[in-house]
Write a structure and sequence with these properties.
The protein is α/β, with parallel strands linked by helices. It has a single domain, classed as Alpha/Beta hydrolase fold, catalytic domain (Rossmann fold), CATH 3.40.50. It is built from 11 helices and 8 strands. About 50% of the residues are buried.
């Protein structure tokens, strides 16, 4: 589904179903150097169970045009503009990593428009080491290798993800290369990491929220370990936490557990 946001095409995967304004809407927001495809199992389930799904490519990533977000706050404003373009007054937001901070900030900027948020593989502060920031800018292929080593706790996912025997490390690495190559003008790797590293408003944003918040955290996550979400969990008025048996790439490593957590959270 193509939407016009800020004068540029914003592409959203709808799970194979037409958009129906009468149904509730859930927006899936990917993390740094990813795209909509990381949500393939979860987005298709909700699209076929009574929800509008907008699993987007962030601006300047893959099939979406425009300027990549320069900050978490910029990404949040884009999400609200996307809802306007789709004619959606209220929505649920599900974000992974960088996308989880965007979801949080969007809900803080417009609490009257967000019913619930799910923060998958989140942390605050979401600091990035100076070495990794530098490598993402000057040696991105090396940084892709580093990130994938830290993001995975297993080699092959359960069959419900990408098929039995799928090499999750290799698949994720290939996706990151493709996303990086999709924008020849902006290094979306370094820009995304810089936005995560520079975001300082997490606790203040959480204090503004009235809506329920779900934290989906990977027991073996070395990028955003569960303890790194504690400051946000402490500020959430209506928060709940689910631990899944995976690393940072938990949508592939623990797809059924992530889906089960979202299904329980999004029940009417």
């Amino acid at each position: 589904m193509d939407l016009n946001v800020r004068g540029h095409k914003a592409w959203c995967y709808t799970g194979g179903k037409p958009f129906d304004a009468a149904q509730p809407t859930v927006v899936f927001i990917h993390g740094v150097l990813n795209d909509h495809s990381v949500w393939i199992l979860q987005s298709r389930y909700f699209a076929h169970h009574g929800w509008n799904v907008l699993a987007l490519d962030l601006p300047g990533h893959c099939r979406s045009g425009g300027e990549p977000p320069t900050s978490v706050e910029d990404g949040a404003r884009f999400i609200l503009d996307l809802l306007d373009a789709a004619g959606v007054q209220r929505a649920t937001l599900v974000g992974h990593s960088f996308g989880s901070l965007i979801a949080l900030e969007a809900a803080a900027q417009a609490p009257e428009r967000i019913d619930r948020i799910a923060m998958v593989g989140t942390a605050f502060p979401m600091k990035v080491s100076p070495a990794l920031l530098d490598t993402s800018l000057n040696a991105p292929e090396k940084a892709i290798h580093m990130v994938n080593v830290f993001s995975h706790s297993m080699l092959a996912p359960p069959p419900s993800s990408l098929g039995a025997g799928t090499w999750v490390y290799g698949g994720a690495r290939a996706l990151m290369r493709r996303v990086l190559a999709s924008n020849p003008d902006v290094n979306v790797f370094h820009r995304g990491f810089s936005a995560c590293d520079g975001y300082q408003g997490g606790e203040a944003a959480m204090e503004k929220l009235q809506c329920p918040v779900l934290f989906v955290l990977g027991r073996h996550d070395a990028m955003t370990p569960p303890r790194a979400a504690q400051s946000l969990q402490a500020k959430a008025r209506d928060g709940r936490t689910v631990l899944v048996n995976g690393g940072h790439d938990m949508m592939s490593e623990a797809p059924d557990e992530v889906l089960a957590a979202l299904k329980s959270f999004l029940k009417p």
